[in-house]
Amino acid sequence: MNLRQDPHAPPPFATLRLDAISRWFGRVPALRELTIEVARGEFVALLGPSGCGKSTTLACLAGLQPLTSGTIWRDEERIDTLPAERRGFGMVFQNYALFPHLTVQRNVEFGLAMRRAGRAERQAKAREALRTVRLEEHGGKRPAQLSGGQQQRVAIARALAFEPQIVLMDEPLSNLDAGLRVDLRAEIKRLHESLGLTTVYVTHDQSEALSLATKIVVMKDGCAEQVGPPEELYRAPSSAYVARFMGYRNTVQGTVRSVTADGVLVDFGGQSVLGTFMSPGAPAPGRRVVVALHPEDLVPGGAAPRPVQDSAAPGAPAGRVDASVEVIEYHGRTTQVVARTADGTALRVQTDRPLHRGEPVHLYIRADRALVYSDDGDAGELDALAEQVA
Ligand SMILES: Nc1ncnc2c1ncn2[C@@H]1O[C@H](COP(=O)(O)OP(=O)(O)OP(=O)(O)O)[C@@H](O)[C@H]1O
């Protein structure tokens, strides 16, 4: 956008900092001393299951809810004491929150009217914002005459019209069907980059977080479980919980058999598999652990297995699990398979190899791709998470 700078806009900032913020609802702690830093230009995704505190974080940041304790800073300026309208954030919600009786153009102007912009300025900025989201042809329509994706773009235009430095988005794509979600996701990324925005984005969808964010905050019970760039969280999740959110759909319990120079040998699925221990401290034989495996890292070798080194990193010994193909879901180029081991462990496998129901299959795993965590007794919780994590 190329709009005149709002004279009331706050000066450019370097860092937004949520410092040990807590929010209690009666006796329920929704946020517990959560600290997050957002640098200017970052796209930060708050990722986690329902109830972990994502929306509350955003509401506290926006000034829609008070903090129970903690502070929020824009550089040296404390902003948690400011009312919402003086924090200068643009907000986009899941349900669009458009006025049905106003035209698209007037809906976008509304936010500017709240900020006491004059009529001509309002109209020009709203038109410009609609152009930015590629809806300039639709200004005269009412929201009901637009598709869900278009309505959400109007909501984004409304948030962008007053050129906020920081845009807060709470599950903006979750009411859209799959195709529109992917299109609008690309649009949000384009806007973030081309307008030089700073974005804080709430989602429970790992693919959204991975594709959009420059930094992901995985939240659990009102705290940040791990914070980092998507590649880092994907490569080295700090717990089985984070691994789940990074697409490691298999989190199976096992027992440490031995510890070697190459890694930790774990018994699970009726076999021993070599993996990499990721938790703090050292594993000891007999210790209960959780092994996290990405479906793509379970490579079917068929009845006549390929040599182990085919599926192993140079020098790294591979593990093998034997299972039987139970469920096959065809997804075009790849197939999602549920394979079951002799001891009843279900493993999710993603492969481009044709497999058949009932077929015995050897699944090869690179040692550096079998991530081993100490078992914190939350295996049941992880299974419940599986229901939520795509
Ligand atoms: N207005 C409220 N009154 C009482 N409890 C609340 C209120 N809002 C949130 N909570 C509680 O605070 C916790 C965090 O809720 P929050 O909505 O922030 O989670 P979330 O991660 O955004 O979940 P979802 O993805 O389902 O929106 C939950 O235990 C929730 O029940």
From TrEMBL:
Where is the ABC transporter domain positioned along the sequence? Answer: 16-246
Give the PROSITE patterns listed for this entry.
Answer: ABC_TRANSPORTER_1 (PS00211), ABC_TRANSPORTER_2 (PS50893)
List UniProt keywords, sorted A-Z.
ATP-binding, Nucleotide-binding, Transport
Cellular component per GO, a single term: ATP-binding cassette (ABC) transporter complex
Q: Which Gene3D superfamilies match?
A: 2.40.50.100, Nucleic acid-binding proteins (2.40.50.140), P-loop containing nucleotide triphosphate hydrolases (3.40.50.300)
Molecular function as annotated in GO: ABC-type transporter activity; ATP binding; ATP hydrolysis activity
Give the residue range of the signal peptide: none
What is the name of the protein in this document? ABC transporter ATP-binding protein
